[in-house]
């Protein structure tokens, strides 16, 4: 499959690059690489005809872009050049298979991201992992919505969760997550393809739901999250900006959720709710 490479120059690069990435992420772009002046994004050539990047207007930054065909990208080689280990709270490391094992970290997670989201580098994944480290997952039943690489599912299992299910709407992500789970000795994690419909038959079933997606998808999934969580269970969400928190907190309150914790990192945010 051939890909189109878009090179974006964003002025100023931060937080403009993060905002623009969030805006175009649902168009079919499969990976992003930060640069000094903005970022590079890739999209399969067959999806490129539906992309319209001229309709966006932002008050705080401007952008220009170029595009070129990139034939048969070796994604593993690209990640190997750019993927450094991520350390969270000096107790968890997220690394690729080609990184040397460092036994000083209690939780060692091996991720080969390929074209899936979730290496710990993005602030939202980092926020989710950090707050998971402070939570008691022992014997919990967990659902990881939009699991990407499976990194959150793997961490939940390593933290003591008894049953973990991850899902993604993208077939490639499902395959990648299954591979990563196996590489971490977590083959008993169930990874399935699908959307929030998977929760419809799981009434009051889960102790924890993890969802690092985008704001609009989270808003649409809140009823399903509420219906499938046990009383007093917890919902971890991220994938949105700190300016979105008030809207999400208000909407969640209409679906039997009360705010348990809020944390920010740069312009990104994560929220933990308890079902009441």
Strand order of the largest sheet: 10-9-8-11-12-14-13
Spans with pLDDT under 50 lasting ≥5 residues? none
The end-to-end span amounts to 48 Å
As a percent range, the share of strand residues is 25-35%
Full CATH superfamily name of the largest domain: Vaccinia Virus protein VP39
The CATH architecture classification of the largest domain is 3-Layer(aba) Sandwich
* Average pLDDT rating: 89
Tell me about the biggest sheet? Answer: 7 strands, mixed
H/E series, N to C? Answer: EHEEEHEEEHEHEHEEHEHEE
Overall number of structural domains: 2
Helix/strand-derived category reads: alpha/beta
Helical segment tally? 7
Write down the CATH class of the largest domain. Alpha Beta
Helix proportion = 25-40%
Global morphology: globular
3D architecture notes:
The protein is an alpha/beta fold and 276 residues long. The protein folds into two domains: 2-73, 2-Layer Sandwich (Alpha-Beta Plaits); 123-275, 3-Layer(aba) Sandwich (Rossmann fold). It has seven helices and 14 strands. The protein has helices spanning 13-24, 75-82, 123-133, 151-158, 171-183, 215-228, 245-253; strands at residues 2-11, 31-34, 38-44, 62-71, 86-88, 92-95, 107-110, 141-145, 163-168, 190-193, 206-212, 229-241, 257-265, 268-275. It has a seven-stranded mixed beta sheet, with helices on both faces. It has a four-stranded antiparallel beta sheet with strand order 2-3-1-4. Strands 5-6-7 form a three-stranded mixed beta sheet, with helices on one face. β9, α5 and β10 form a beta-alpha-beta unit. The model has no long low-confidence stretch (mean pLDDT 89).
